[in-house]
Design brief:
It contains four helices and no strands. By secondary structure, the chain is mostly helical. The protein has one domain. The longest helix is centred in the middle third of the chain and has 31 residues, at about 35-65. About 20% of the residues are buried.
């Protein structure tokens, strides 16, 4: 299993309750973005901070080795995988109309 996939799996397992709750909110957001945008932004901040912390943890390991130049690609792969799980993750922080 790729390193970034393993990192995501560990993160999802370690924070299972938080991600399950967010998954439900995310699904509601997909159905009716206008109704859920404000709550999605509020709860999404915590998810984004958590994701960024795990991304930093993943990339900092490779930056301190001779493979540091690949950490940008590793971060991109991490976020691509997150977007497969939560396709609307980039809409956190969008201002409601």
């Amino acid at each position: 299993m790729a390193k970034y996939k393993k990192q995501i799996e560990e993160m999802m397992l370690a924070h299972q309750d938080l991600f399950n709750k967010f998954r439900e909110l995310h699904n509601n957001y997909i159905i009716d973005p206008e109704k859920w945008q404000e709550k999605y932004n509020e709860e999404g901040r915590d998810i984004m901070m958590l994701l960024k912390r795990w991304e930093n943890n993943l990339c900092s390991k490779s930056e301190s080795t001779r493979y540091g130049k690949f950490s940008d690609k590793l971060a991109d792969k991490f976020w691509s995988e997150v977007r497969q799980i939560f396709p609307k993750i980039d809409f956190i922080g969008v201002q409601p109309k």
